[in-house]
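Deliverable D4.2, example record:
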Amino acid sequence: MFTPQGPTLRELAVQALSSTMRGYDLLAPKFDRTPYRTPDRVLEAVAEAVRPLGPFGRGLDVCCGTGAGVDVLRGLCRERVTGVDFSAGMLDVARGAHTGAAGGPVVDWVRADALALPFTRAFDLALSFGAFGHFLPEERPGLFGQVHGALRPGGLFVFPVGAPPAVGSRAYWSLLGFDLAMRARNALWRPPFVMYYRTFPLAGVTDDLVRTGFTVRLLPLEEFGRRPDGSPRVRLVVAARA
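Output generated by the structure prediction step:
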């Protein structure tokens, strides 16, 4: 991260002391050169798992950032693909980096809050990568309700969820430390910067989706292997609007 191409420590500090939206506006030009961008391996695995569930006409990337998920949708949808994000800076980078290919689906970029999506029954497929840590648990039902309303009947909302790290592992302590530091930052500094790694448990997420009106399936992404207990390291949540 701390390379000539990526953000400097000072830039990250300024971002962390800004609001969530302003922080991403500032980070946008260098975002794709940080570990925060969803790895291509994850994007490709999701695309391969979703493709047999189609065909799809129109797709929506919820909290699209710099547009990595839009590229996935362009390979899955025939008519139109829309990326939506609340950060003008991230959308500017996305527009410059991801233009629609000749003969492919039309690509749109929309600035909007995911908690107030300006769409009604417009899409066959919605996906999201790496954005859910920006929503507090009490906001999840509202977020899922907005996506539900944006989908046509039978439309799918898909996203990957990794298994939590083993208690006591290095990853466990790293994520716990990050979340505690962020909570302390938000208790002492305004405006808040909402980003947590441990607020999106699969069981709670599934319950919220069902209460919103989705039917939910969980597909293992076998490319990422299994844990010692045999459970998948990464699952794909496939939520269908009835």
